[in-house]
Amino acid sequence: MAITVQYVVTHKGVEKLVTTDKKEADQYDKMLDAADNLATYIDAKGIKLDEAIIEELSVMLAKNKDAVTKLLKGTSATDVLEAESADVVKLKANK
Q1: CA distance linking residue 95 with residue 88, whole number of Å
Q2: Can you give the pLDDT at residue 73?
Q3: Predicted pLDDT of residue 8
Q4: d(CA 69, CA 79)
Q5: Within 10 Å of residue 49's Cβ, how many Cβ atoms?
Q6: Which of 49, 54, 53 is nearest to 38 (CA)?
Q7: pTM of the model as a whole
Q8: Residues of the chain by 3-state class (helix, strand, coil), percent to 5
Q9: What confidence score (pLDDT) does residue 95 get?
Q10: How far is 5 from 48, CA to CA, in rounded Å?
Q11: Averages of pLDDT over each 10 residues, the chain, 95 residues
Q12: How big is the chain by its Cα radius of gyration, in Å?
């Protein structure tokens, strides 16, 4: 019989990630904390959006923090998006 340790990341009572990798769980939890901070900041600045949209936007920004940082430092969106697409490996389907 094998024993497997699982790390479960929950956010607002919802299970978001189950993994056997503690580092991955910690990173995901930290990203969710950053997203919560972003959502609070957006709301405090008077931008009124539906709660689901704020959550989706803040999670997207937190997941892409490196790209967002580059944008805030003046890198063009085109350059950032091109660099991201270069990271994606496209495979041709076998015919």
Answers
A1: 21
A2: 96
A3: 94
A4: 13
A5: 13
A6: 54
A7: 0.76
A8: 60, 10, 30
A9: 47
A10: 41
A11: 92 91 95 95 92 92 95 94 74 55
A12: 17
